[in-house]
Amino acid sequence: MITATALAALATACALGAWRFTSACWTYRAPRVAIVLWQALGLAWGLATTGSMLAYAVQPYDRGLLHGLIAVAQGREPVSPWDGPHLFALVAGLTALAVLVAVTLTAAAQTLRARRRHRTLLALIARDDPFVPGVRVLDHPGAAAYCVPGLRSQVVISAGAMELLSDDELTAVLAHEAAHVRERHDLVLLPFGALRRVLPWSKVVRDAQAQVELLVEMAADDRARRYCSPRRLATALLRFGTAGAMPTPHGMLGSVTAANVMARVNRLVKPDPELQPHFRYGYLGLSAALLVSAASLWVIPL
């Protein structure tokens, strides 16, 4: 009962923390740290929520959560008799865990298929350009810049975008897309998209996904700033916004979405001071503590 209670308390704390975190003011100052904390909150919440039900379900075995599940799988007799609430908790916990895993795997499979189809399409309609080596160019008058993540990643830009942007702005946009590829931001976004499918009615989940999407773009902006002026990147974003950028294909990561342009431009033009190191390490420590706590409560027999 101790494990179930502790996991339920951890799940509640993660849910309340996520609700408060959606309105946090410091995240723009350290987007990578905020992304790590969001990931820790999401994973710890999933483990704690399903774990609390399963821990209560296997309580008659008096072996802890993980060892209790192993005993159930092996068909061993419990120490005390099963009853309706424990059986219901077992079915509910296993169902919730299966749904979370299945939805995540399904979302990943759909994304991989979309990227594979898009790579095939790019092989037919895109071209190389010596002016932008290593980048695929689409002969389209609209403004578009995005990346196809994965083991065979590609950065794609349209001819319209190349005409729209100056050389410095083009360098900034391509550096932004390269950052998405290098840091595998697609993997960061995947579990939040999956959770949104499971809980489409939840405002916290919806806000969390929007926050992480924005933080991922800001993290890529920070990487691009190493290779170009922040103002050049800001003007490139504004040019895309006013020109009506083409929508990013499903499963890809683009430079511009209408919902985040001005927040990113304001951050680039008038940056806030960086988050102080003790706060940075404190939030990273909190992230580690959440994950360790959730994993430990699954393993340690209490």
Automatic annotation (TrEMBL):
Cofactor: Zn(2+)
Signal peptide segment: none
Keywords for this protein: Hydrolase, Membrane, Metal-binding, Metalloprotease, Protease, Transmembrane, Transmembrane helix, Zinc
Domain Peptidase M48 residues, every copy: 116-191
Record carries keyword Transmembrane: yes
Pfam families: Peptidase_M48
Protein name: Zn-dependent protease with chaperone function
The organism's place on the tree of life at top rank: Bacteria
Gene Ontology terms, MF aspect: metal ion binding; metalloendopeptidase activity
Cofactor binding description: Binds 1 zinc ion per subunit.
Family to which this protein belongs: Belongs to the peptidase M48 family.
InterPro entries xrefs: Beta-lactam_resp_regulator, Peptidase_M48
Transmembrane feature ranges: 87-109, 281-300
Organism: Nonomuraea endophytica
Gene Ontology BP terms: proteolysis
